[in-house]
Amino acid sequence: MTDRGYYPSYGDNYFAIILVLFILLAIIGCVCYLG
């Protein structure tokens, strides 16, 4: 049995999470800077 079938795109999901967090930080930074 192999686990590759269960996690085919784990790296892509990890990158997507980092990208979303970066965008959220950018939005919060803009709001704090403008506000």
Give a structural overview.
It is rod-shaped, with a radius of gyration of 16 Å. By secondary structure, it is mainly alpha-helical. The protein has one domain (11-35). The chain has one helix at 10-34. The protein is built from one helix and no strands.
Summarize this entry quickly.
The protein is mainly alpha-helical and 35 residues long. Helices cover 71% and strands 0% of the residues.
List the keywords:
mainly alpha
Write the layout of secondary structure elements.
Elements: H1 10-34
Radius of gyration: 16 Å
In total, the number of strands is 0
Largest beta-sheet characterization: none
Helix % is over 70%
Task: Please indicate the count of domains.
Answer: 1
Question: How are helices and strands ordered from N to C?
Answer: H
Uncertain residue segments: none
Identify the overall geometry. Answer: rod-shaped
Termini gap: 55 Å
- Put simply, the count of helices is 1
Average of per-residue pLDDT values: 80
Q: What fraction of residues sit in β-strands?
A: under 5%
The secondary structure category is mainly alpha
